[in-house]
Design brief:
The complex is a heterodimer of chains A (266) and B (344). By secondary structure, chain A is mainly α. Chain A has two domains: 46 residues, no CATH class; 206 residues, MetI-like fold (Orthogonal Bundle), CATH 1.10.3720.10. Chain A has 14 helices and no strands. In chain A, helix 3 crosses helix 4, helix 7 runs antiparallel to helix 10 and helix 8 packs across helix 9. The longest helix of chain A has 34 residues. The radius of gyration of chain A is 23 Å and the shape is globular. With 344 residues, chain B is an alpha+beta fold. Chain B folds into two domains: 203 residues, Rossmann fold, CATH 3.40.50; 107 residues, OB fold (Dihydrolipoamide Acetyltransferase, E2P), CATH 2.40.50. In chain B, 24% of the residues lie in helices and 28% in strands. Chain B is built from eight helices and 18 strands. In chain B, the strands form four sheets. Chain B has a six-stranded mixed beta sheet with strand order 4-5-6-1-7-8, with helices on both faces. Chain B has a five-stranded antiparallel beta sheet with strand order 11-10-9-12-18, with no helix packed on it. In chain B, strands 13-17-14-15-16 form a five-stranded antiparallel beta sheet, with no helix packed on it. In chain B, helix 2 crosses helix 3, helix 2 runs parallel beside helix 4 and helix 3 packs across helix 4. Chain B starts with 19 loop residues before the first strand and ends in a 9-residue tail after the last strand. The relative contact order of chain B is 0.12. Classes of the chains: A mainly alpha (266), B alpha+beta (344). Chains A and B meet through helix 8 and helix 9 of A and strand 4 and helix 2 of B.
Chain lengths: 266, 344
């Protein structure tokens, strides 16, 4: 029995990596090879698909659009959540506990519910088909999440740190920027990662609120597939590239992710 | 300095520079709240705080020249030791040369010179607390607030710093307020003590004075560890009567006391397990014996009350047996029906 201990994790990792391998595998094949035969690795290895994506503005603008609203959303979510989380972690005010809990209700409804009101609203204020519209829409569920994560990390910093700084003569803004933010930097990283990921994988609102100019990459993928037949190799290459931003971001906060999943409370 | 909350919580207190001022009380007795109000971090719900003839009740912490050290080791995690100590000076925009000189001096005093480039996380608890103390000292504050600064340190370091602290502050003109929950620590540090109980200052005066002559039973209780033993006692004529078996003659000094019911307070180390002259014997049922090296602490029951005897030497008693204890009656304190100390 002991001799086969390695078998379970090996199988697990094998099945885990299989779809990702298959996606990469397809991205280096020609569409003919994908449709024509079943091959475990590319017979005719090609970079054609990637070259198309990086040279055709229809394709790469999709990435630029997606990254714009995702990064803008991450920035506003964390910036707005910082003072809110500080208030929840440090002050007692009327209804604070209730408000803190009900922040999460925004995450209880499927985002699709908000698609229609958002479409109307952003059309009315001329924000439709801009990355700002998508970023603001995603803030709806990302701000509460960031507040919860940051509140957890902030409550881990003793209140006496604040008091010491004030007694030492620090004004509140100076204390917040110079001492408090560095003290919870890991938490900010984790909050940024989660908001980044949720915004990156969200498709429905992003598609509904954009048409041409701010079309996200996922929307580009579906439309290209229908217009010029099945360009499966191209789609696979585009799909492979969508994994990269998440992987890059997760690398920086890899040591704090577990604490992040517990919303900063460990 | 006199924070006085009008009405409900009497905390009139006037502190003066030079000596150590101690706030002594159990957890939740209001020590930290009082310190916060002195620092300007909390506003009193009533009453006023005056400093050097100025009303500073609503003045924020930033505008008062105070410094504070907490029980937890609080240092700024992203600054090294030098920057931690220098931080109040940087905020006050002092010149670089001045900062270097002052930080060097204080670091020397607290033996941190070797550690100036380290981060607080790389220091031991004692070194972290020294850094916090250095930051409190470097600023030349008018008021230094120490909130149980030694409570989280291990025994050895605590003793070391406890010796150093009064010396460090001796030459500075600032008012030092030191909160502690340990009567023994208060007695070791000396100076003046304010005993606190449930948010009230029960007594303020020289520490040794409060120990010898507490104004009332509460103050006696706060400044006594283990807790002071109490019992109801009657004075009739020339005798104090504790119960039908135990009574003793009234000493000449207390002759003037009226015949009435009193509460007698006897400190644990005034009850011995061995007979001495003038001592009065009581018989008690042994409940717990704690033997610590050279000292015996014995909890026993007399008339349904638990008493504690503390005496040097090892005295092992079987739990549950009856034993003889000897009260040094000359050192007893008597409190009237208002719990005030009887003075004649």
């Amino acid at each position: 029995m002991k001799r086969y201990k390695w078998a379970v994790p090996t199988l697990y990792i094998f099945f885990l990596m299989l779809p990702i391998y298959w996606l990469l595998n397809m991205s280096f094949k020609t569409t003919n090879e994908i449709l024509g035969s079943f091959t475990l690795w590319p017979q005719k290895f090609t970079f054609e698909n990637y070259i198309t994506i990086f040279t055709d503005p229809v394709w790469y603008s999709g990435y630029i659009n997606s990254l714009s609203y995702v990064m803008f959303n991450t920035a506003i979510s964390v910036t707005v959540a910082l003072p809110a989380a500080y208030a929840f972690s440090r002050y007692r005010f009327m209804g604070d506990k209730h408000l803190f809990f009900w922040l999460l209700t925004n995450r209880m409804a499927p985002p699709a519910v908000f698609a229609l009101p958002f479409f109307q609203l952003y059309s009315a204020v001329n924000l439709f088909d801009t990355y700002i519209a998508v970023a603001l829409a995603h803030a709806l569920f990302n701000v509460p999440l960031a507040v919860w994560i940051l509140e957890g990390f902030m409550s881990g910093v003793p209140k006496e740190l604040d008091e010491t700084a004030f007694v030492d003569g620090y004004s509140f803004p100076r204390f917040f920027l110079k001492i408090f933010i560095p003290a919870i930097l890991a938490g900010i990283g984790v909050a940024a990662f989660f908001t980044f990921m949720f915004s990156w994988v969200e498709l429905l609102l992003a598609k509904t609120l954009t048409a041409v100019d701010a079309k996200p990459i996922a929307a580009v993928m579906t439309r290209t597939a229908s217009s010029s037949g099945y360009e499966l190799g191209l789609l696979a290459a585009a799909g492979s590239l969508t994994i990269i931003p998440g992987a890059v971001v997760i690398y920086f906060v890899r040591n704090y992710i577990a604490k992040g999943f517990a919303l900063g409370r460990v | 300095m006199s924070p006085s909350a009008s009405g409900r919580i009497p905390t009139d207190l006037t502190l003066e520079g030079g000596a150590f001022n101690l706030l002594l009380g159990t957890t939740l007795s209001g020590k930290t709240t009082l310190l916060h109000m002195m620092a300007g971090l909390d506003r009193p719900t009533g009453g006023e705080i005056w400093f050097n003839g100025k009303n500073v009740t609503g003045v924020s912490a930033q505008k008062r020249n105070v410094s504070m050290v907490h029980q937890q080791f609080i240092n700024f995690p992203n600054f090294n030791v030098f920057e931690n100590i220098a931080s109040p000076l940087r905020v006050a925009r002092q010149s670089r040369a001045e900062i270097d000189r002052k930080v060097g001096e204080v670091a020397e005093l607290l033996q941190l010179t070797q550690l100036l480039s380290r981060n607080p996380q790389e220091l031991s608890g004692g070194q972290q607390q020294r850094t916090a103390l250095a930051r409190a000292l470097v600023k030349d504050s008018d008021l230094v607030l120490l909130d149980e600064p030694l409570a989280n340190l291990d025994f050895k370091l605590r003793e070391e710093l406890r010796d150093e602290l009064p010396k460090i502050f001796e030459t500075r003109g600032c008012i030092v307020v030191y909160a502690t929950s340990e009567p023994a620590e208060a007695l070791l540090l000396g100076g003046h003590t304010a005993t606190l109980h449930e948010g009230c200052v029960t007594q303020f005066g020289k520490t040794a004075e409060i120990y010898r002559r507490p104004h009332d039973l509460l103050s006696a209780r706060v400044l006594s560890d283990p807790p002071i033993n109490t019992a109801k006692i009657r004075k009739t004529g020339n005798r104090f009567i504790l119960n039908e078996n135990v009574s003793w003659p009234v000493s000449r000094a207390l002759k003037a006391m009226a015949d009435a019911s009193y509460t007698v307070g006897i400190r644990p180390h005034h009850i011995s397990t061995s007979s001495t002259t003038d001592a009065v014997m009581v018989v008690g049922k042994v409940l717990i014996t704690e033997l610590s090296g050279s000292e015996s602490t014995i909890h026993f029951e007399v008339d349904g009350r638990t008493w504690v005897s503390q005496s040097s030497g090892i005295h092992a008693f079987e739990v549950g047996t009856e034993a003889n204890f000897y009260i040094d009656v000359a050192r007893c304190l008597f409190f009237d029906d208002q719990d005030k100390l009887v003075t004649v």
